[in-house]
Amino acid sequence: MRRKASLVLLAFAVFFAALSPLLRWYAFPRLAKIPPNQYQDMVLEAKPAILLDYGTMKARQVPKVSIVQTLKGNVEESERIERTAGRDVVVWDALSYVVGPDGKMVSRIPERYIFDAHTQDPVHATGEMVDGDPVRRTGIEFKWPFLTEPRDYDYFDAQTRTSAPIHYKGTRTFRGLDVYYFEQTIPWTKVPLPKKLPVQGITPQAVEKAGTSRWYSTKRMFWVDPVTGAPVNGEELHREELRGGSLVPGGGKVTAFSGHVKMRPDYVTATVDLVTTQRRLVLLLTSHLPWGFLALGAVLLTLSLVLEARGRRPGPGGTPEAREPEPAPVSPA
Q1: In 3-state terms, what secondary structure has residue 213?
Q2: What pLDDT score does 309 carry?
Q3: Quick check: 140 and 222 in contact, CB under 8 A?
Q4: What is the pTM of this model?
Q5: Cα distances (Å, whole numbers) of residue 26 to 158, 223, 279, 282, 285
Protein backbone atom coordinates (compact mmCIF):
# COMPACT_ATOMS: atom_id res chain seq x y z
CA MET A 1 0.00 0.00 0.00
CA ARG A 2 2.83 2.39 0.78
CA ARG A 3 4.33 1.80 -2.66
CA LYS A 4 1.03 2.54 -4.37
CA ALA A 5 0.58 5.71 -2.33
CA SER A 6 4.15 6.73 -3.17
CA LEU A 7 3.49 6.37 -6.90
CA VAL A 8 0.26 8.37 -6.66
CA LEU A 9 2.02 11.16 -4.80
CA LEU A 10 4.85 11.13 -7.35
CA ALA A 11 2.34 11.46 -10.20
CA PHE A 12 0.68 14.46 -8.54
CA ALA A 13 4.10 16.02 -7.83
CA VAL A 14 5.03 15.80 -11.53
CA PHE A 15 1.60 17.19 -12.52
CA PHE A 16 1.81 20.28 -10.31
CA ALA A 17 5.47 20.90 -11.15
CA ALA A 18 4.62 20.84 -14.86
CA LEU A 19 1.50 22.99 -14.36
CA SER A 20 3.51 25.79 -12.72
CA PRO A 21 5.46 27.00 -15.82
CA LEU A 22 2.51 26.24 -18.12
CA LEU A 23 0.27 28.56 -16.12
CA ARG A 24 2.84 31.37 -16.11
CA TRP A 25 4.27 31.16 -19.63
CA TYR A 26 1.43 29.59 -21.64
CA ALA A 27 -1.91 30.31 -19.97
CA PHE A 28 -1.26 33.84 -18.69
CA PRO A 29 -0.28 35.43 -22.04
CA ARG A 30 -3.52 34.02 -23.50
CA LEU A 31 -5.85 34.77 -20.59
CA ALA A 32 -4.68 38.30 -19.71
CA LYS A 33 -6.30 40.77 -22.09
CA ILE A 34 -8.24 44.02 -22.23
CA PRO A 35 -11.99 43.39 -22.64
CA PRO A 36 -13.37 44.82 -25.90
CA ASN A 37 -16.32 46.52 -24.18
CA GLN A 38 -14.35 48.41 -21.52
CA TYR A 39 -15.55 51.90 -20.62
CA GLN A 40 -13.58 54.37 -18.56
CA ASP A 41 -13.88 58.07 -17.84
CA MET A 42 -11.58 60.45 -16.04
CA VAL A 43 -11.56 64.11 -15.05
CA LEU A 44 -8.37 66.16 -14.91
CA GLU A 45 -8.05 69.75 -13.76
CA ALA A 46 -5.64 72.67 -14.07
CA LYS A 47 -6.07 75.04 -11.12
CA PRO A 48 -5.39 77.86 -11.90
CA ALA A 49 -4.74 78.08 -15.64
CA ILE A 50 -4.04 80.57 -18.41
CA LEU A 51 -6.71 80.56 -21.11
CA LEU A 52 -7.15 82.56 -24.32
CA ASP A 53 -10.17 84.83 -24.62
CA TYR A 54 -10.99 84.45 -28.30
CA GLY A 55 -13.16 87.58 -28.17
CA THR A 56 -10.24 89.85 -27.32
CA MET A 57 -7.42 87.48 -28.37
CA LYS A 58 -5.79 88.07 -24.99
CA ALA A 59 -4.69 85.44 -22.44
CA ARG A 60 -6.17 85.65 -18.95
CA GLN A 61 -5.90 83.64 -15.76
CA VAL A 62 -8.92 81.54 -14.85
CA PRO A 63 -9.57 79.57 -11.63
CA LYS A 64 -9.95 76.19 -13.33
CA VAL A 65 -9.89 74.33 -16.63
CA SER A 66 -11.29 70.79 -16.72
CA ILE A 67 -10.42 67.99 -19.14
CA VAL A 68 -12.87 65.11 -19.38
CA GLN A 69 -11.36 62.00 -20.99
CA THR A 70 -13.45 58.99 -21.97
CA LEU A 71 -12.40 55.62 -23.39
CA LYS A 72 -15.21 53.51 -24.82
CA GLY A 73 -14.69 50.04 -26.27
CA ASN A 74 -16.23 49.64 -29.74
CA VAL A 75 -17.16 45.94 -29.82
CA GLU A 76 -18.59 45.99 -33.33
CA GLU A 77 -15.43 47.50 -34.81
CA SER A 78 -13.13 45.19 -32.85
CA GLU A 79 -14.99 42.14 -34.16
CA ARG A 80 -14.78 43.48 -37.72
CA ILE A 81 -11.02 44.02 -37.50
CA GLU A 82 -10.42 40.66 -35.76
CA ARG A 83 -11.84 38.82 -38.80
CA THR A 84 -8.87 39.96 -40.89
CA ALA A 85 -6.23 40.61 -38.20
CA GLY A 86 -6.31 37.05 -36.86
CA ARG A 87 -5.86 38.12 -33.24
CA ASP A 88 -7.79 39.66 -30.34
CA VAL A 89 -8.21 43.36 -31.02
CA VAL A 90 -9.57 46.23 -28.92
CA VAL A 91 -10.92 49.44 -30.43
CA TRP A 92 -11.12 52.42 -28.11
CA ASP A 93 -13.11 55.46 -29.16
CA ALA A 94 -11.54 58.16 -27.03
CA LEU A 95 -12.57 61.77 -26.47
CA SER A 96 -10.68 64.58 -24.76
CA TYR A 97 -13.13 67.37 -23.96
CA VAL A 98 -11.75 70.58 -22.46
CA VAL A 99 -14.07 73.06 -20.73
CA GLY A 100 -13.40 76.44 -19.22
CA PRO A 101 -14.59 77.79 -15.85
CA ASP A 102 -17.89 78.88 -17.44
CA GLY A 103 -18.61 75.32 -18.62
CA LYS A 104 -18.12 76.19 -22.29
CA MET A 105 -16.01 74.08 -24.64
CA VAL A 106 -12.39 75.04 -25.15
CA SER A 107 -11.47 72.11 -27.40
CA ARG A 108 -12.78 68.70 -28.38
CA ILE A 109 -10.48 66.05 -29.85
CA PRO A 110 -11.75 62.52 -30.62
CA GLU A 111 -9.46 59.56 -31.25
CA ARG A 112 -9.75 55.96 -32.38
CA TYR A 113 -7.04 53.75 -30.91
CA ILE A 114 -6.76 50.15 -32.18
CA PHE A 115 -4.47 47.73 -30.37
CA ASP A 116 -3.73 44.10 -29.50
CA ALA A 117 -5.81 43.02 -26.48
CA HIS A 118 -2.93 41.02 -24.96
CA THR A 119 0.22 43.04 -25.69
CA GLN A 120 -1.23 46.57 -26.22
CA ASP A 121 0.78 46.84 -29.45
CA PRO A 122 -0.91 49.06 -32.08
CA VAL A 123 -2.94 47.32 -34.77
CA HIS A 124 -3.14 49.34 -37.98
CA ALA A 125 -6.57 49.27 -39.56
CA THR A 126 -9.03 51.56 -41.31
CA GLY A 127 -10.43 54.06 -38.84
CA GLU A 128 -7.28 54.68 -36.80
CA MET A 129 -7.33 58.46 -36.34
CA VAL A 130 -6.92 61.59 -34.22
CA ASP A 131 -9.50 64.36 -34.69
CA GLY A 132 -10.52 62.87 -38.01
CA ASP A 133 -6.95 62.71 -39.37
CA PRO A 134 -5.69 59.20 -40.26
CA VAL A 135 -2.65 58.21 -38.21
CA ARG A 136 -0.35 55.22 -37.94
CA ARG A 137 0.67 54.80 -34.32
CA THR A 138 3.85 53.27 -33.02
CA GLY A 139 4.44 52.52 -29.37
CA ILE A 140 1.77 52.67 -26.68
CA GLU A 141 -0.94 55.12 -25.63
CA PHE A 142 -3.11 55.31 -22.52
CA LYS A 143 -1.88 51.96 -21.11
CA TRP A 144 1.39 50.09 -20.65
CA PRO A 145 1.66 46.30 -21.27
CA PHE A 146 0.92 43.78 -18.56
CA LEU A 147 4.06 43.19 -16.46
CA THR A 148 5.58 46.52 -17.44
CA GLU A 149 9.38 46.52 -17.58
CA PRO A 150 11.58 49.19 -15.94
CA ARG A 151 12.72 50.73 -19.24
CA ASP A 152 11.84 53.43 -21.75
CA TYR A 153 8.85 52.97 -24.09
CA ASP A 154 7.66 54.77 -27.20
CA TYR A 155 4.53 56.75 -26.35
CA PHE A 156 2.16 58.25 -28.90
CA ASP A 157 1.40 61.95 -28.61
CA ALA A 158 -2.03 62.81 -30.03
CA GLN A 159 -1.27 66.50 -30.53
CA THR A 160 1.81 66.00 -32.73
CA ARG A 161 0.51 62.68 -34.20
CA THR A 162 3.97 61.19 -33.56
CA SER A 163 5.62 58.86 -31.04
CA ALA A 164 8.56 59.72 -28.81
CA PRO A 165 10.34 57.95 -25.92
CA ILE A 166 8.76 58.15 -22.50
CA HIS A 167 11.54 57.61 -20.00
CA TYR A 168 11.55 55.31 -16.99
CA LYS A 169 12.65 57.38 -13.98
CA GLY A 170 12.61 54.81 -11.19
CA THR A 171 10.32 53.06 -8.73
CA ARG A 172 8.16 55.08 -6.37
CA THR A 173 5.42 54.47 -3.84
CA PHE A 174 2.00 55.91 -4.63
CA ARG A 175 -1.02 55.35 -2.39
CA GLY A 176 0.58 52.20 -0.96
CA LEU A 177 1.50 50.73 -4.38
CA ASP A 178 5.01 50.26 -5.74
CA VAL A 179 4.82 51.93 -9.16
CA TYR A 180 7.10 52.86 -12.05
CA TYR A 181 7.44 56.58 -12.75
CA PHE A 182 7.71 57.74 -16.39
CA GLU A 183 8.31 61.16 -17.96
CA GLN A 184 8.01 62.43 -21.53
CA THR A 185 8.81 65.94 -22.74
CA ILE A 186 7.51 67.19 -26.07
CA PRO A 187 9.37 70.36 -27.17
CA TRP A 188 7.56 73.22 -28.85
CA THR A 189 6.05 71.76 -32.01
CA LYS A 190 3.67 73.15 -34.62
CA VAL A 191 0.46 71.10 -34.41
CA PRO A 192 -2.88 71.08 -36.24
CA LEU A 193 -5.73 73.22 -34.99
CA PRO A 194 -8.70 71.31 -33.53
CA LYS A 195 -11.49 70.74 -36.02
CA LYS A 196 -13.94 72.36 -33.58
CA LEU A 197 -12.96 75.72 -32.13
CA PRO A 198 -14.69 77.47 -29.22
CA VAL A 199 -15.79 80.51 -31.26
CA GLN A 200 -18.80 80.14 -33.53
CA GLY A 201 -17.99 80.76 -37.17
CA ILE A 202 -14.20 80.45 -36.84
CA THR A 203 -12.77 77.39 -38.58
CA PRO A 204 -9.24 75.95 -38.67
CA GLN A 205 -9.12 76.83 -42.36
CA ALA A 206 -9.89 80.49 -41.61
CA VAL A 207 -7.22 80.62 -38.89
CA GLU A 208 -4.60 79.10 -41.17
CA LYS A 209 -5.60 81.45 -43.99
CA ALA A 210 -4.95 84.35 -41.62
CA GLY A 211 -1.39 83.03 -41.22
CA THR A 212 -1.84 81.96 -37.60
CA SER A 213 -0.47 78.62 -36.41
CA ARG A 214 -0.86 76.59 -33.22
CA TRP A 215 2.16 75.44 -31.20
CA TYR A 216 2.28 72.99 -28.33
CA SER A 217 4.66 71.72 -25.66
CA THR A 218 4.13 69.41 -22.71
CA LYS A 219 5.83 67.44 -20.00
CA ARG A 220 3.73 64.40 -19.11
CA MET A 221 4.22 62.25 -16.04
CA PHE A 222 2.74 58.84 -15.30
CA TRP A 223 2.77 56.61 -12.23
CA VAL A 224 2.23 53.11 -13.63
CA ASP A 225 1.38 49.89 -11.79
CA PRO A 226 3.95 47.45 -13.25
CA VAL A 227 1.70 44.40 -12.75
CA THR A 228 -1.34 45.54 -14.76
CA GLY A 229 0.37 48.25 -16.80
CA ALA A 230 -2.37 50.71 -15.81
CA PRO A 231 -1.48 54.30 -14.85
CA VAL A 232 -2.74 55.10 -11.35
CA ASN A 233 -1.92 58.79 -11.69
CA GLY A 234 -1.06 61.21 -14.47
CA GLU A 235 -0.04 64.86 -14.74
CA GLU A 236 0.95 67.26 -17.51
CA LEU A 237 2.64 70.64 -17.67
CA HIS A 238 0.70 71.64 -20.76
CA ARG A 239 1.24 74.75 -22.91
CA GLU A 240 -0.33 75.92 -26.18
CA GLU A 241 0.26 79.11 -28.17
CA LEU A 242 -1.11 80.80 -31.27
CA ARG A 243 1.66 82.40 -33.30
CA GLY A 244 1.83 84.90 -36.12
CA GLY A 245 -0.75 86.06 -38.60
CA SER A 246 -3.42 88.72 -38.47
CA LEU A 247 -5.34 87.07 -35.60
CA VAL A 248 -2.55 87.55 -33.05
CA PRO A 249 -2.01 91.16 -31.91
CA GLY A 250 1.21 92.42 -33.44
CA GLY A 251 1.73 89.14 -35.27
CA GLY A 252 3.64 87.73 -32.31
CA LYS A 253 2.34 84.98 -30.06
CA VAL A 254 -0.32 84.53 -27.41
CA THR A 255 -0.92 81.76 -24.87
CA ALA A 256 -3.96 79.68 -25.79
CA PHE A 257 -3.72 77.42 -22.75
CA SER A 258 -1.20 76.86 -19.98
CA GLY A 259 -1.57 74.88 -16.79
CA HIS A 260 -0.46 72.03 -14.55
CA VAL A 261 -3.04 69.36 -15.35
CA LYS A 262 -3.72 66.79 -12.62
CA MET A 263 -6.18 63.97 -12.10
CA ARG A 264 -9.03 64.97 -9.81
CA PRO A 265 -8.48 63.35 -6.36
CA ASP A 266 -11.70 61.29 -6.41
CA TYR A 267 -10.70 59.77 -9.75
CA VAL A 268 -7.24 58.97 -8.41
CA THR A 269 -8.83 57.09 -5.50
CA ALA A 270 -11.21 55.18 -7.79
CA THR A 271 -8.38 54.30 -10.19
CA VAL A 272 -6.12 53.01 -7.40
CA ASP A 273 -8.96 50.85 -6.02
CA LEU A 274 -9.69 49.39 -9.47
CA VAL A 275 -6.04 48.69 -10.25
CA THR A 276 -5.51 47.09 -6.81
CA THR A 277 -8.29 44.61 -7.58
CA GLN A 278 -6.99 43.87 -11.08
CA ARG A 279 -3.41 43.36 -9.93
CA ARG A 280 -4.55 40.61 -7.54
CA LEU A 281 -5.89 38.65 -10.52
CA VAL A 282 -2.71 39.15 -12.54
CA LEU A 283 -0.50 38.17 -9.58
CA LEU A 284 -2.63 35.08 -9.06
CA LEU A 285 -1.75 33.86 -12.56
CA THR A 286 1.85 35.06 -12.69
CA SER A 287 3.09 34.49 -9.14
CA HIS A 288 0.81 33.04 -6.49
CA LEU A 289 -0.51 29.98 -8.37
CA PRO A 290 2.74 29.11 -10.26
CA TRP A 291 4.87 29.30 -7.11
CA GLY A 292 2.16 27.62 -5.06
CA PHE A 293 1.92 24.72 -7.51
CA LEU A 294 5.71 24.40 -7.59
CA ALA A 295 5.86 24.31 -3.78
CA LEU A 296 3.00 21.79 -3.66
CA GLY A 297 4.85 19.61 -6.17
CA ALA A 298 7.98 19.72 -4.01
CA VAL A 299 5.99 18.73 -0.90
CA LEU A 300 4.29 15.85 -2.72
CA LEU A 301 7.65 14.66 -4.09
CA THR A 302 9.11 14.69 -0.56
CA LEU A 303 6.16 12.69 0.80
CA SER A 304 6.50 10.22 -2.06
CA LEU A 305 10.20 9.69 -1.33
CA VAL A 306 9.51 9.30 2.40
CA LEU A 307 6.89 6.62 1.79
CA GLU A 308 9.15 4.86 -0.67
CA ALA A 309 12.02 4.90 1.84
CA ARG A 310 9.80 3.50 4.57
CA GLY A 311 8.65 0.74 2.24
CA ARG A 312 12.29 -0.26 1.70
CA ARG A 313 13.35 0.01 5.37
CA PRO A 314 14.77 -3.30 6.74
CA GLY A 315 12.40 -5.17 9.01
CA PRO A 316 13.28 -6.89 12.33
CA GLY A 317 14.97 -9.76 10.49
CA GLY A 318 17.33 -7.46 8.59
CA THR A 319 15.38 -7.57 5.34
CA PRO A 320 13.24 -4.85 3.79
CA GLU A 321 9.79 -4.71 5.25
CA ALA A 322 7.72 -7.31 3.53
CA ARG A 323 4.43 -6.61 1.99
CA GLU A 324 1.36 -7.78 3.85
CA PRO A 325 1.21 -11.58 3.54
CA GLU A 326 -1.26 -12.83 1.03
CA PRO A 327 -3.73 -15.38 2.31
CA ALA A 328 -2.60 -18.97 1.84
CA PRO A 329 -4.41 -20.90 -0.84
CA VAL A 330 -7.08 -23.20 0.47
CA SER A 331 -6.50 -26.84 -0.47
CA PRO A 332 -9.46 -28.58 -1.98
CA ALA A 333 -11.17 -30.96 0.35
Answers
A1: strand
A2: 78
A3: no
A4: 0.87
A5: 34, 29, 19, 14, 11
Q: In angstroms, rounded to a whole number, what is the distance separating the alpha carbons of residues 89 and 117?
A: 5
pLDDT of residue 139: 94
Which is it for strands 129-130 and 133-134: parallel, antiparallel or unpaired?
antiparallel
Angle, helix 2-22 to helix 289-311, in steps of 10 degrees: 160
DSSP string over 132-176: TEE----SB-S-PPSS--SS-EEEEETTTTEEEEEEEEEEEEETT
CA atoms 250, 48, 224, 129: torsion sign: negative
Model pLDDT for residues 300-333, shown as the tens digit of each residue: 888 888 877 777 766 555 555 545 555 656 555 4
Under 8 Å between Cβ of 112 and 141: no
Burial class (CB in 10 A: 0-12, 13-18, 19+), 329: exposed
Q: Show the DSSP H helices in the chain as ranges.
A: 2-22, 28-31, 75-85, 204-209, 265-283, 289-311
Q: What φ, ψ does residue 307 adopt, rounded to 5°? A: -65, -40
- For residue 131, the SS3 value is coil
Separation between Cα atoms, residue 7 and residue 307, nearest integer Å = 9
Distance CA(210)–CA(206), nearest Å, equals: 6
**Would you say residue 63 has pLDDT above 90?**
yes
* Phi-psi map region of 132: left, alpha, beta (phi>0 left; psi -120 to 50 alpha): left
CB-based burial of residue 265 (10 Å sphere; 0-12 exposed, 13-18 middle, 19+ buried)? exposed
Map residue 291 onto helix, strand or coil: helix
